[in-house]
Amino acid sequence: MAVSDPIADMLTRIKNALAVRKEIVIIPSSRIKLEILSILKKRGYIEDFKELKVNEFKEIEVRLKYGLDGRKPAINEVMRVSKPGRRVYSKKDEIPRVLQGKGITVISTSKGIMSGDDAKKQGLGGEILLKAW
Fold it and tell me: What is said about its interaction partners and assembly (predicted)?
């Protein structure tokens, strides 16, 4: 089945897995998803991820992260901002902060996908892909 927005599909799979307290979620692989997951891992929102080859398809195994008690997920909410039907762009000075800096914005810039903080430091704007907190 073809998915019209693969990033939204990935985020939905992660949210659903967190809702039922799964430890691992499997998603179809793509370069952009790997880059987004590396940012989420670097910022402590997921435990780890690895790319697997299943038959002729590649998939990503994402290990989700929970609090010390094993109940509270590290990601409270993840939201797709720019969608195929409505792209959302931001200038370098207008990159939104999520929860006064407690969350993260992921942006697609001319120099690749990066967090909003990194884009501001490099003086880059771009398409706002998602927000997480």
Answer: Part of the 30S ribosomal subunit. Contacts proteins S5 and S12.
- The pTM assigned to this predicted structure is 0.93
d(CA 76, CA 98): 12
% of the chain at pLDDT higher than 70: 99
pLDDT digits (tens, 9 = 90+) for 99-117: 998 999 999 999 999 999 9
- Looking at 3.30.1490.10, 3.40.50.360, 3.40.50.300, 3.40.50.1370, the CATH number of the domain 6-132 comes to 3.30.1490.10
Range 85-123 burial, b when 16+ CB lie within 10 A, else e: eeeeebebeebeebeeeebbbbbbbeeebbbbebbbeee
